[in-house]
Amino acid sequence: MSSTILKTVKFVSSSEDKDFGIAVKKRVAQYFKEKKIPRTGDYRIWMKVIALPLLYLAPFIFLLTNTFSGSLLVFYGLWLLMGVGLAGCGLGIMHDACHGALSKKRWVNDFIGDGVLLLAGGHPLNWKIQHNVLHHSYTNIDGYDEDIDPSGVMRFSPHQPVKPMFKYQVYYAWFLYGLMTFSWATFKDFLQMSRYDKKGLLAAQGTTYKKEFPKLIIEKIIYHLVFIVLPIVLIDVAWYHVILGWFAMHFLAGLILAIVFQPAHCVPSSDFPLPDKENKLKGDWALHQMETTADFAASNRVLSWYVGGLNYQIEHHLFPTMSHVHHRGISKIVEETAKEFNVPYHSEPTFIGALVKHAKMLHKLGKD
Question: What pTM was computed for the model?
Answer without folding.
Answer: 0.95
